[in-house]
Structures are given as structure tokens and as C-alpha cells.
Amino acid sequence: MTAAAVELRAGDLEGFFQVPFELYPPDSPYVTPMRADLERYLDPARNPLMRDDGGRLTFFTAWRNGRPIGRLTAHTHPSSNARHGVKRCQFGYFDCEDNVETARLLFDAAETFAHAEGCDELVGAFNLTAMQQAGILTEGFENQPYTDMIWGAPHLPRLLEACGYAPVFPMSTFEFDVGPETADALLGDKQRAVLSDPDWTWKPISRSAFKARFEEARQCLNDGFSDNPMFVPLTPAEFDFQAGEMMWIVDPRIACVVHYRGEPAGVVICIPDLNPFQKATRGRIGPMALVHFIRERLRRRRAVIIFYSVKRALHGQGLNGAMLHQVIKALFAGGYRQCGVTWIADENSASLRQMEKLFARRLQRLNLFRKDLR
Predict the structure, then answer these.
(1) Cβ–Cβ < 8 Å for 93, 125
(2) Which domain of life is it from (predicted)?
């Protein structure tokens, strides 16, 4: 008996959303984005990467016997290509059955799109905004990810290599235990000097001051990350598109902007881990969503640091350690007991040293995967 043919569809949002539910059992670590968020990300008229930057976007699903069995996005990011001198197309949201031919069908479509856009390489995964989730999981499949972390099946790296993609740019995510000892491990003479100096002032990210604090956070991120590989400064529209809805879930005790002599100097964006809520709702806002939200809020014990950044002119003064010390103290006081840290590249030695000071455990290993299309 011959296998049923695989059909490729472009632009099928509902099928795209359903793919992981068809592939992964309910007890897998996979956590879906909310369907409403996915719809925003995949809409070129709403996503500023396409709407404002001139990027192009497409997405595909593979189907067999009326069942979605694979998915993939492909998009261009003109500002990134101009800043870094590349002709790159990016792929994302790669989930697929363990079948090389299905994966090839998806990637052939993405590579055709990349060629049509004048690109000479396809790299991913990037999921899908300017503040992107990045990477393909290569180790740590058994661990439960935090908000803004990727999870994918163990066969995905093998499928990528079978389609001609090579792993590059290794990264890790981390997890550490929250407690007074962890916070105090970050303190040295520089950090204590920051904490005792009235020139440094601490501003919680509360709902009442959310817009002002988040604009300062954007400025600190853009300045502090300016020299990082692949980074592109975020416009206000891009930052708001990804982070604006944090106003409704932010815990002002655990996120802050620090000012130095009245000017924004550094930021830590730490939020409660929303994955249990998203897992419970299966990514849809329905009649039970509020019940799930309240229940998970009452029993939350995990938070995640999305990013932390210090303006370059103030590097070396101990502010990073001082900020993390204050945030970890606040996490413990608020009842949190574990904290995740989103991806850190292997080449980022300064951030990796901070993880050592926190006695952080490596939660996941990830890589980008790249194919030269020339």
C-alpha cells in the first residue's frame, strides 16, 4: 500500500495553529502561543517587521489525509540584512512529523520563497517578531520550558540536517533556584556601591507608569545590546507589538528600570511564567480562560527573565549584578521559587559568568540552523 500524498497549503492559519496538537501528546513539554497572538504575528498588516520595515512573510502547512502534519514560516527582515550585511531569509515555527519527505516539502517551499526575495541563505528558527524566540532545541527535551522559550521534538534537528541545514550559533537557556543565598551571591564591592549610592534610583514597572517605563526599557535594550550578534534596535512599534500586552500580566515587584542621575541606565524584564496558563487553555481564550488565569496566578512559583540590559557607557560598574540581586530578593519575597533565563549565546561570556554566580542549571541547548542557497 502506498503512503497517502502530502499536500502543501499556504496561509492556512487554523491548520498552522493545530499542527503541534496533532504531533505532540498532551503531556509533552510543548506550549502553544495563544492563537490570537499567532494570528497577529502572521498578519503582515499588523506585524511591524513586515508592515513598517518592508519585510515579506509566508507560512506553510503540510497535510496528509485531512490532517496537518507539519508547518513552517519564512520571512525577510530588511533592517537586519542591511545592518549585518547579509541576504538572509529566516524560517520559524518548524514543527513536523518524523518524516524527511514532509520536511523537505516545507523547506523546498521556504527556499523558493527565499530565492524569490533575493536571499542567499535560510536561517532559523526565529519565531517571529523583533524580540524573537530563537533556535532549534538540541538538548534538554525533557525539561519544561518557560515563557519565551522554544520546545521542539527530538527528531527536528535530524530532519533539518537531512534537508541540508547545519547547526550554528549555539545557545543555552537556564534555570536557577530563587532564594536569599542566590541573591547575595551576586554582591561584590561594585554592586554594594551601586545599591548604597543615591545617584542610582529604582523604578518598578507598574501599570500606572507602564508606557514611560517600557520606553526606557527599550532604550536600555537597544543601547546595551547594540554590539550583540544579529541584534537590530527595536522601534517603538516593534517593542510595543511584542511587549505591550505585558501590562496586564507584569508583576511590578520583579521588573524594574534603574536610573542613574535621573536618566534610564538599566533594565530587568522579569515576568511570571505564563506557560501553565497557556497549556491549560490550549492557546485559546474561551469560557474557562479567566478561571485558569486566576488559578495559575494563585499557585505560581516560576518566573522568567526575558532580558536584562545596561547601557554601554555604564558597563563595568556592577549594575547588572545589583539589578539581579534586587529582582531575586523580590522574587523570593513574592513567593517565587524558580526563575528561568531566556537564551544566552555561547559567545556571551559576561552573561554566562552571571549564570555561574547564580548557580544556574542549563535547561536547554539550542542552535540556529543554516543552509547556503547559492
Answers:
(1) yes
(2) Bacteria
Average pLDDT over residues 175-198: 96
Q: Are 176 and 338 in contact (CB under 8 A)?
A: yes
- Residue 130's CB is within 10 A of a number of other CB atoms, namely 23
Sort strands 121-124 and 88-96 into parallel, antiparallel or unpaired. Answer: parallel
DSSP state string for 252-313:
TTS-EEEEETTEEEEEEEEEE--HHHHHHHTT---TTHHHHHHHHHHT--EEEEEEEEE-GG
- Please give the single-letter amino acid code of residue 296: E
Ramachandran class of 118: left when φ > 0, alpha when ψ lies in -120 to 50, beta otherwise: left
pTM score over 0.90: yes
The pLDDT mean for the chain works out to 93
Give the C-alpha separation, 113 to 76, whole Å.
10
Please tell me the number of Cα atoms within 13 Å of 314 on its side-chain side: 25
Q: In the beta sheet, which residues pair with residue 62?
A: 8, 70
Delineate the domains of the chain, giving CATH numbers in brackets: 7-171 (3.40.630.30), 176-365 (3.40.630.30)
Q: What is the pLDDT of residue 11?
A: 94
